[in-house]
Design brief:
Blueprint lengths: L2 H19 L4 H7 L5 H12 L3 H9 L9
Amino acid sequence: ISIKKYINRQKIELVKDLLNNNDLSLSLIARKLKYRNVTHLEDEFLNETGVSPEFYRLLRHANYDLPNSA
């Protein structure tokens, strides 16, 4: 695994934590974790997990189990 891929996975784990544990907007999460913009965060998240951040948050709040990554 490349360093870039490892860092991206770690950032996605932080995004998951923020989506799970509070009601921060995607815009704020993107800024907080230094993504270029919300679209970049959404693309990276979808690529790594197979679902959008919004869908991930919706399922987590509905207490569905999701895999850690796709």
